[in-house]
User: Which sequence fits this backbone?
C-alpha cells in the first residue's frame, strides 16, 4: 500500500495540468500558478505549449513528452524529479492522460514515491456531456474507437448493451465511417455531436444517427460524440395476472404476505398496491 499526502511531505511532485480545449481564457488561476512555479514543463507538443506559455508570460524550460518518445522522456523526467525538481505535464488540450500519453509516466512516478497531483480544468467529454441533453446519471467515457472498421465494430458490439450514455472522441476525417458503423451495430439511436467546444464555431448537433449522417461529411474540427445507452424495456404490470398468481400460491399453502411479496418481485410491481388489490377483492 502506498499513501500519498500530497502537500505534507518533501517529495518532488509531478503535476498533471489541464490546458484549454479551445478558449485560452479557461486556464485556471491555480494551473497558471503551477506552470509558473514548476522547474520544467513536459509537453505533448512543445510548439503548442510555447504558444500557451507566451499568452500568459510563462517562461519555463519545455521538454518533449509524447507517445512516441516515452522510452527516453520518462527516464529524463524521473531524473529531474530525483534531483528535487517539480515537473508539470500538459497535453495539447484538456487533461493529460485522457486519450493522451502519460499513463506510464504516472505509474513510474508513483512507483518511485514521487507525488502525483492533478489539477481541475477543461475536459471536452464533460463539457459535451452536461450540455448534451442525454442522461448524465451514469455514463461511459470510451475515448477513441479503433480506426479500422472491423475492430471498431467489434468494440461497439461489446458496448451495445450498456444502458449508459457513451462518450467518444473522433477526428473529422473518420467521423462519417465511425457513425456508419455505430448505425450498423447500435441501431438508429439518439446522439449528440459536439464540435469546436469553447471556440467561436462551437456547435451541438442533436438527432438520430441517420439524421446526423446526412450532414456530417461537411463538418470540421475535433469532435465529441455522445450516444444514448440501450433503452431498457419497461414491462407493464398486469394486476389481473398478478392476483391470479398470488391466489395460486396461497392455494398451494404459501402465506398470503409471502405470496404477494414474491409475485410483486417477479412481475416488477408494487407490493403495497398488490396487497391492497388482493384484500379488496376478498
Assistant:
Amino acid at each position: 500500500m502506498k499513501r500519498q499526502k500530497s502537500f505534507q511531505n518533501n517529495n518532488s511532485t509531478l503535476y498533471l495540468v489541464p490546458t484549454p480545449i479551445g478558449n485560452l481564457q479557461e486556464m485556471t488561476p491555480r494551473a497558471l500558478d503551477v506552470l509558473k512555479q514548476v522547474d520544467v514543463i513536459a509537453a505533448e507538443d512543445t510548439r503548442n505549449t510555447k504558444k500557451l506559455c507566451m499568452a500568459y508570460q510563462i517562461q519555463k524550460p519545455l521538454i518533449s513528452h509524447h507517445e512516441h518518445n516515452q522510452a527516453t522522456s520518462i527516464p529524463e523526467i524521473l531524473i529531474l524529479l530525483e534531483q528535487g525538481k517539480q515537473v508539470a505535464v500538459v497535453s495539447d488540450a484538456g487533461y493529460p492522460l485522457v486519450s493522451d500519453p502519460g499513463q506510464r509516466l504516472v505509474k513510474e512516478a508513483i512507483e518511485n514515491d514521487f507525488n502525483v497531483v492533478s489539477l481541475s480544468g477543461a475536459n471536452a467529454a464533460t463539457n459535451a456531456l452536461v450540455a448534451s441533453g442525454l442522461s448524465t446519471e451514469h455514463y461511459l467515457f470510451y475515448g477513441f474507437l479503433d480506426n479500422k472498421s472491423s475492430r471498431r465494430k467489434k468494440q461497439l458490439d461489446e458496448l451495445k448493451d450498456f444502458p449508459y450514455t457513451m462518450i467518444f472522441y473522433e477526428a473529422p476525417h473518420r467521423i462519417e465511417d465511425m457513425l456508419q458503423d455505430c448505425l450498423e451495430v447500435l441501431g438508429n439511436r439518439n446522439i449528440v455531436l459536439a464540435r469546436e467546444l469553447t471556440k467561436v464555431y462551437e456547435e451541438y448537433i442533436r438527432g438520430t444517427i441517420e439524421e446526423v449522417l446526412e450532414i456530417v461529411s461537411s463538418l470540421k474540427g475535433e469532435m465529441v460524440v455522445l450516444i444514448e445507452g440501450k433503452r431498457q424495456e419497461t414491462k407493464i404490470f398486469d394486476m389481473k395476472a398478478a392476483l391470479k398468481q398470488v391466489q395460486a400460491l396461497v392455494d398451494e399453502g404459501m402465506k398470503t404476505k409471502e405470496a404477494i411479496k414474491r409475485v410483486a418481485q417477479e412481475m416488477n410491481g408494487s407490493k403495497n398496491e398488490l396487497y391492497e388489490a388482493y384484500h379488496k377483492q376478498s
In short: The longest helix spans residues 70-82. Strands lie at 13-16, 40-43, 62-64, 87-90, 115-118, 139-144, 165-170, 190-195, 203-208, 223-227.
